[in-house]
Design goal:
It is a single chain. Helix 12 runs antiparallel to helix 13. The protein is mainly α. The protein has a domain at 98-308: MetI-like fold (Orthogonal Bundle), CATH 1.10.3720.10. The protein is built from 14 helices and no strands. The longest helix has 36 residues, at 91-126. It is found in: Cell membrane. Belongs to the binding-protein-dependent transport system permease family. The chain crosses the membrane at residues 12-34, 103-127, 139-161, 181-201, 239-265, 285-310.
Length: 318
Amino acid sequence: MNALVLRLIAARIGLALVSLLLVSAVVFAITALLPGDAAEEKLGLEATAETLAALRHEMGLDRPALLRYGDWLAGMAGGDPGRSVVSGALVGQLIASRLPNSLLLAGLTAAISVPLALGLGIAAAMWRGSRFDRAVSMGAVAVVSVPEFLIATLAVLLFAVQLRWLPALAYTGPDAELAELARAYALPVFSLCCVIISQMLRMTRAAVVDQLRAPYIEMLRLKGASPLRMVLRHALPNALGPIANAVALSLSYLLGGVIIVETIFNYPGVAKLMVDGVTQRDMPLVQTCAMLFCAAYLLLVTVADVLGIVSNPKLRHR
């Protein structure tokens, strides 16, 4: 990598850090504007103004917003997001207890969606213009147009309510057998895979088709190379950068889908914890969960940008 590539990568990383700082201010401001607070949620509607004021003072909710934001941001930077104002437990511990569940759900989705999307996208590019290509492309466009919550709701109504093949709740204990685990995760993973596969498939197909239209592929075709050899030995290696970029971008969309799917299937992950925190007006918990999702999204987008820079031959050979 030359100096230009390194400068572009450093600029992307710096931009991601600045974006994360701006996102922290937006997250704090939005959560501060939500109606009600933890004191009202804890004491109920019949609490007197004096009792509410005393509890808000005890929780630190009556301090100026800038001071609370500064303390919260310093704690986040130091790895201490504070305590839940509802339960009093450390926010880090609450998230750590749910994070493995969310990572398992995301990992299963990625393990299924990435190979399937890459295989379908490469096959559609190899036989572009065929019935297979048109069917796959039309199916991808149709599926990506449907939001995750609708896919998840229809899946529950069909497979859990009508056919009774799969459970509507998506969690099993740590001692569950493999078959029970597969049945429990089938619906949420299916709901997430639908959109992820569709997005990744379309971007993969576009990257491979772009290489197949290059002059060197036409030269190979004139020399009598087989379509499989042209794709696997020549086009695919040159398309690895755009494909990796497509994978990173598609997985970034997984973060938004996880929030919806965990809520619909009552899955005990970080997203469900954040939704519960919003209901209880537990702002330190909501802010930390939101920052965790935003940081993961920015990380994936930055990785996609860096891969796009590194894979660009015009930049590498300057």
